[in-house]
Design a protein that fits this description.
The structure holds 3 protein chains of 3 kinds. Chain A is mainly α. Chain A has helices at residues 2-14, 25-30, 35-64, 73-95, 97-103, 106-109, 114-125, 130-158, 170-185. Chain B has 3 domains: 19-355, Rossmann fold; 374-436, no CATH class; 477-566, no CATH class. Chain B has helices at 124-133, 174-197, 211-223, 242-250, 270-281, 311-317, 374-378, 385-393, 397-402, 413-417, 424-476, 483-492, 508-531, 543-560; strands spanning 27-28, 35-38, 48-49, 56-57, 62-65, 74-75, 80-89, 97-105, 160-164, 201-207, 229-233, 265-269, 288-295, 301-306, 326-329, 336-337, 351-355. Chain B: Residues 484-493 have a biased composition (Low complexity).
C-alpha cells in the first residue's frame, strides 16, 4: 500500500508536473489571475487528466501493444485527449456557462497541454499498471491544481502590492513562479525512503 | 457594583485631555448676528422647507418638515426673520454647500406656544411622531432619527435599554457636563424611551473617569425612585461606541447585519434622552445643543449653542490662542478637520477642538505596512485592518467586503497604533464611499434598464396597434387615399410614412402632413423667438404684426393645400379647433 | 498496415460517435452569459458602442463580435469589470471618458415638438405636443440621444456636480504616478 502512497506524494509534491517537470505552463500562467478561475481550471484538468490516463492505458495495452503499433502512441493519445476535452467542454458549457466563459480559450488548450500528454507517456515509461496509471494521473493533476491555486492566491495579493512599474503583470508572475519552483525543489528526496 | 461587566476586544487608552473643559459649568452662548440652519441635519430624507424668505419665525417654529419616516424636523433656533433659504457651507469634511435657512434674530428670543405633554397619556405611535416633529436625533454624533429606533422588534420582547454616557472620545466633555448638571431631566427622559420600547431593564453606562457624572446620575435615579442601574465602565476607547457599550453591559454582540432590537437591546445617548424629555415635557423642539469647545483655547468650556450658529462665532467665545492652525469637529479619534469656520453648529456637532501644530502635529509620512498586526489587536470589532488596508489600497473592493469592511465603525484605533503611520481609517472610508457610489450606480442602471424595456414593449404594442388601425382604415376607404399623399409630399419634401395621431375620421397620411407642417412652423417660430430680444412678448403684438402673421399663415395654408395646417402657426393662438380633416 | 488503418479508423468512429451524442445531449440554448455582461453595462442605452442599446452590445460581446472597450459611459471601470468576467485583457477605452451628465431643456426655447420624447430611451422626458417639455433629472442617464433630434437646439448636457449626497471620500495619498 505504501507503494501507492509514494506514487501520490511523488506526483503531487516531489515531481510536481508544473514546478519540477515544467509541463503545462500555459494554463499555469494564463488562468492564475483569479482564484476562482484557478479552481475551475484545476478541476477541469484533474478530470481530463485522470480520464486521459485511464483511456490511454487501455488504448496502449489493448489496441497498440498487441499489434506492435507503439509508434502510434503520441498520435492516438492526442486524438483521445482531444475527444475527451471536447466532451468536457460540452458538459461544462451546459452545467456552468460562466466557468466555460472564464476558462475561455484555455479549455480547448488542455488538448495541447503538454502535461495531459506527458503524464500518460510518463506512465508508460515508468511501466505503471492500470491502477498505478490512474493514481499517477490523478495525483499529477492534483499537484497541478495545487500549484495553480497557490499561484493564483499569490497573484491576487500581488495585484495590491507596490510592484516596480517594469515588473508589473507577467514579469512579476514569472519571478514568483520561479521562486515557487525553487520552493518545491525542497521536496526532493521525500520519496527516496525506499 | 452589582452588575457583572463584560469586556470587548481591543481598544486603546489615549490621553483623555478632559479636565480643562470641565472646570466651568455649561454656559449659554450669545445670540449670533445670523443663524444658518441646514435643513438636512440627520440621517435619512432631507426635510422640506416650510418657511419662505421674508417670513417672521418664532423660536421653535418648524422650518423644515420631516420627509418620510426616517427623517427629522428642523426648527428655528430663535425668533427673527428668515432672510433667505440658500446653499451654505455645511459642517462636513467636504465643505460642500447644503440648503440652509438663514435667520436674522430679532433679539427677543420669543418661544412659539409650547404645550407640555405626558407621554404616558398618549399612544406610542403619537409619541414617536411627536419626537420626529420635534427633531430629536442621536446627539452622540451619528444624528440618526431617534423615533425610528424606538420600535421594539415584533418577535423579540425588549430586555435592555442602554443609556450611553460613556463619552470615550478624548477632549469631549459635553455629555459629562450634561449629566452633572441636568441628571434629573435625563432620568425623567429615560422613562419615555423605556415605556416606548417596553424594556425590562435600564442600564446607564458611564466611563469610570467621570465619577461626578456617575454620582449625579445615581443621585437622580435614587431621587426619582427609579430602578435604573448606573454602571461605571472601565475607561478604554471606544467604550462609548454603541456596540461596544452594549457588549460591555449586556454581553450581547450586535452583528452588522442585524438591528440591536433583534437582540432585545437598544442604545441611546444621554443628550438624546435629554432632548426627548425637553421635547415632550416642555414642548421644546431641538433648537440647541451642548458643544465642548476645547484644545488650544484660553477658555475651554461647554456651551449650550443654538443650532445654526456659525462656528466662527462659537470659537471666538473660547479665545483661541495665536498658534491655532485648524479646528476639528468631533473628537481627535473620529472627528474631521473643518474646511471652513463659516459652517454652522448642527445636531451632530458635539465638540470643537482648536488644534495647534504643537498639540496636533501633522502626521508623519506614511510608511509601508510591515504586517505587525498591531491594528488587528486593537480593533474593537476583531477585524484585520491590515488586510482591509491591503485591498482598499489596491481598490479591490470586493475583497474588502469579504474581510467585513462594513463592520468597521471607523473608531480610529488602528490608525492610532499603526507604527507606520498609515491613515487606515481614511482608506476604509474611501472604500466604503466607493462601494456605496457603485451601488447607487448599479441601482440607477437597473432602473434605466427596466424603463428601457418597458418603453420597447410599449413601442412594439403601439406599432402593432397602428398597423392594425391602418389596415382597417385602408380597408374601409380604399378610394379616398390618392390625392392626399401628393400634397403631403409637396409640403415635407419626402413621403409621409406612418400616421401618428390620426383621428379615426381623417386619413392617416393627412395627419402626418399636418404634423410636419406644424413642426416646420414651430421651428421658424423658435428661430424668430431666439433672434428677438424678448421672446415672450408675442402676446402683445400690434395690429399690423398680427395681420402680417395672418397673411403668412394664409400663404402657408395655400402652399400646403390643406386648411388644418394653419391652425397652430401663430404663437399664443387659441386651442386648435376640433379635428377637421377632409372627410 | 491494414491493421494500423483499421485501428485508427475504429478509434475515430468510436470517438466521433461519442462526441456526436454529447453535442445533442448537452446542447446549450440561449446564452446565460449575456445577462452577466449586461449587468455590468451602465444601461444608458445610448448606442455609443454602435449597437442599439445595452443588451445587443452584451450579446455581441458574448458572441465575440464586439470588443469590451466600446462603452464610454461605463468608463475604464466597466472595461476592467468586463475583462475580469471574460478573462480578457484590459484595453483602453475607444472613445474618451466623460463625466456623468444630465440633459437640460431650455424651456424658453422649447417648441413642444415631442421629438426628444421619442428619442429618449428611458422615458425621462415629459411633455406633450405643443406643450413645453422637461427632463426628469433622476431618470436621465445622460445618453445625449435627445440632443440631436431637437430642431431648435434647446437641449444641453450639464455635468452632474458634486454634492453632499454623491460626495466620496478621496483616496488617502496623492498618487505620484500610475502605471498599468
Amino acid at each position: 500500500m505504501t507503494h501507492y502512497l509514494f506514487i501520490i506524494v511523488g506526483a503531487v509534491l516531489v515531481n510536481n508536473v508544473v514546478l519540477v517537470k515544467i509541463l503545462g505552463l500555459c494554463p499555469f500562467m494564463g488562468v492564475s489571475r483569479k482564484l476562482e478561475t484557478a479552481f475551475g481550471m484545476g478541476a477541469a484538468t484533474t478530470f481530463v487528466l485522470t480520464v486521459a490516463t485511464g483511456a490511454s492505458y487501455i488504448i496502449d495495452h489493448y489496441l497498440l501493444m498487441p499489434f506492435g503499433l507503439e509508434y502510434l502512441r503520441t498520435l492516438s493519445f492526442i486524438v483521445t485527449i482531444a475527444a475527451i476535452v471536447q466532451l468536457t467542454e460540452m458538459v461544462i458549457q451546459k452545467t456552468s456557462p460562466l466557468l466555460h466563459q472564464v476558462l475561455g480559450i484555455y479549455l480547448p488548450l488542455i488538448t495541447t497541454n503538454c502535461a495531459v500528454l506527458g503524464v500518460p507517456l510518463l506512465n508508460i515509461a515508468n511501466k505503471h499498471d492500470f491502477v498505478e496509471s490512474l493514481l499517477f494521473g490523478a495525483a499529477s493533476a492534483i499537484g497541478f491544481s495545487l500549484v495553480l491555486i497557490l499561484f493564483a492566491g499569490i497573484r491576487e495579493r500581488i495585484e495590491g502590492a507596490d510592484v516596480p512599474v517594469y515588473f508589473r503583470g507577467t514579469a512579476i508572475a514569472m519571478v514568483t513562479a520561479g521562486l515557487m519552483s525553487l520552493a518545491f525543489m525542497g521536496f526532493a528526496g521525500l520519496d527516496k525512503y525506499q | 457594583m452589582l452588575q457583572r461587566l463584560f469586556g470587548f476586544k481591543g481598544g486603546v487608552k489615549p490621553q483623555t485631555h478632559k479636565a480643562p473643559s470641565v472646570q466651568e459649568p455649561i454656559a449659554q452662548a450669545p445670540l449670533p448676528a445670523r443663524l444658518y440652519v441646514p435643513l438636512h441635519q440627520s440621517i435619512g430624507g432631507a426635510p422640506t422647507p416650510r418657511v419662505e424668505a421674508g417670513e417672521d419665525v418664532l423660536k421653535g417654529q418648524l422650518i423644515g418638515g420631516a420627509d418620510g419616516w426616517v427623517s427629522a424636523a428642523v426648527h428655528a433656533p430663535t425668533s427673527g426673520r428668515v432672510v433667505a433659504i440658500v446653499d451654505h457651507v455645511a459642517a462636513h469634511p467636504s465643505g460642500l454647500p447644503t440648503l440652509s435657512v438663514v435667520i436674522e434674530p430679532d433679539g427677543r428670543d420669543e418661544w412659539i406656544a409650547r404645550t407640555p405633554l405626558d407621554h404616558r397619556s398618549l399612544p406610542p405611535e403619537r409619541v414617536r411622531e411627536l419626537l420626529r416633529d420635534a427633531g430629536v436625533v442621536g446627539l452622540g454624533g451619528a444624528a440618526f432619527p431617534s423615533h425610528a429606533k424606538l420600535t421594539a422588534a415584533r418577535s423579540v420582547p425588549m430586555e435592555d435599554l442602554v443609556i450611553n454616557g460613556a463619552e470615550c472620545e478624548p477632549y469631549m466633555t459635553c455629555d459629562d457636563m450634561l449629566m452633572r448638571e441636568r441628571a434629573e431631566e435625563i432620568v425623567r427622559g429615560i422613562a419615555i424611551f423605556r415605556d416606548l420600547l417596553g424594556a425590562r431593564r435600564v442600564l446607564i453606562g458611564i466611563e469610570d473617569n467621570k465619577p461626578e457624572a456617575v454620582a449625579a446620575m445615581q443621585a437622580a435615579v435614587c431621587g426619582l425612585a427609579e430602578d435604573y442601574e448606573v454602571v461605571a465602565v472601565p475607561t478604554r476607547y471606544p467604550a462609548g461606541g454603541a456596540k461596544q457599550l452594549i457588549r460591555v453591559l449586556t454581553g450581547k454582540e450586535v452583528p452588522a447585519s442585524k438591528r440591536s432590537t433583534e437582540l432585545a437591546v437598544q442604545c441611546f445617548n444621554v443628550a438624546t434622552v435629554y432632548t426627548a424629555y425637553r421635547a415632550l415635557a416642555h414642548g421644546e423642539p431641538v433648537v440647541s445643543r451642548i458643544v465642548t469647545l476645547t484644545g488650544n483655547v484660553e477658555r475651554p468650556r461647554n456651551w449650550e449653542v443654538r443650532l445654526g450658529t456659525p462656528l466662527g462665532d462659537l470659537v471666538a467665545l473660547g479665545r483661541p490662542k495665536a498658534d491655532t492652525s485648524r479646528y476639528l469637529m468631533g473628537g481627535p479619534m473620529m472627528g474631521f478637520a473643518l474646511p471652513s469656520l463659516e459652517a454652522p453648529v448642527v445636531k451632530a456637532t458635539n465638540c470643537i477642538i482648536a488644534a495647534a501644530p504643537t498639540t496636533f502635529p501633522a502626521s508623519p509620512p506614511e510608511m509601508p505596512c510591515i504586517r505587525c498586526g498591531a491594528c488587528a489587536e486593537v480593533c474593537p470589532h476583531e477585524l484585520q485592518p491590515f488586510e482591509l488596508y491591503w485591498f482598499a489600497r489596491a481598490r479591490n473592493f470586493g475583497k474588502t467586503q469579504e474581510y467585513y469592511l462594513f463592520d468597521c465603525i471607523e473608531c480610529g484605533c488602528c490608525s492610532y497604533v499603526c507604527p507606520s503611520h498609515i491613515p487606515l481609517v481614511q482608506y476604509f472610508r474611501f472604500a466604503k464611499s466607493e462601494i456605496w457610489a457603485r451601488e447607487r450606480e448599479k441601482n440607477a442602471a437597473d432602473a434605466a434598464k427596466a424603463r428601457f424595456e418597458l418603453r420597447n414593449a410599449r413601442e412594439e404594442r403601439e406599432k402593432a396597434e397602428k398597423a392594425e388601425r391602418l389596415a382597417r382604415t385602408a380597408a374601409a376607404r380604399p378610394a379616398e387615399k390618392k390625392p392626399a399623399p401628393a400634397s403631403a409630399e409637396t409640403v415635407a419634401g419626402q413621403p409621409a410614412a406612418v400616421p401618428v395621431d390620426a383621428a379615426p375620421a381623417a386619413p392617416a397620411v393627412d395627419a402626418e402632413a399636418v404634423k410636419k407642417a406644424t413642426i416646420v412652423a414651430a421651428m421658424e417660430r423658435a428661430r424668430a423667438q431666439r433672434e428677438a430680444a424678448q421672446p415672450r412678448n408675442t402676446e402683445q403684438l400690434s395690429r399690423e404684426q398680427q395681420q402680417e402673421i395672418a397673411a403668412i399663415e394664409a400663404r402657408r395654408a395655400r402652399v400646403a393645400g390643406d386648411p388644418p395646417g394653419t391652425r397652430t402657426t401663430r404663437p399664443g393662438s387659441a386651442p386648435p379647433p376640433a379635428e377637421t380633416g377632409d372627410s | 498496415m491494414i491493421t494500423t488503418l483499421a485501428i485508427m479508423a475504429l478509434g475515430a468512429i468510436v470517438l466521433g460517435a461519442a462526441l456526436g451524442y454529447a453535442s445533442i445531449r448537452f446542447k446549450v440554448e440561449g446564452d446565460p452569459l449575456v445577462e452577466k455582461i449586461e449587468a455590468i453595462l451602465p444601461q444608458t442605452q445610448c448606442g455609443q458602442c454602435g449597437y442599439p442599446g445595452c443588451k445587443p452590445y452584451a450579446a455581441a460581446i458574448s458572441a465575440g463580435e464586439a470588443d469590451i472597450n466600446l462603452c464610454p459611459p461605463g468608463g475604464m471601470d466597466g472595461v476592467r469589470k468586463l475583462a475580469d468576467l471574460l478573462g480578457r485583457e484590459v484595453k483602453p477605452l475607444e472613445a474618451e471618458e466623460k463625466p456623468k451628465q444630465v440633459a437640460i431643456i431650455d424651456e424658453q426655447t422649447c417648441i413642444g415638438c415631442t421629438l426628444c420624447i421619442q428619442a429618449c430611451p428611458v422615458d425621462a422626458i415629459v411633455g406633450a405636443a405643443k406643450q413645453m417639455h422637461t427632463v426628469v433629472e433622476p431618470l436621465c442617464t445622460g445618453c445625449e440621444l435627445c440632443v440631436k433630434p431637437c430642431p431648435v437646439e434647446c437641449i444641453h448636457m450639464l455635468p452632474i456636480n458634486e454634492n453632499l449626497d454623491n460626495w466620496k471620500w478621496k483616496y488617502p495619498v496623492i498618487e505620484i504616478r500610475r502605471a498599468a
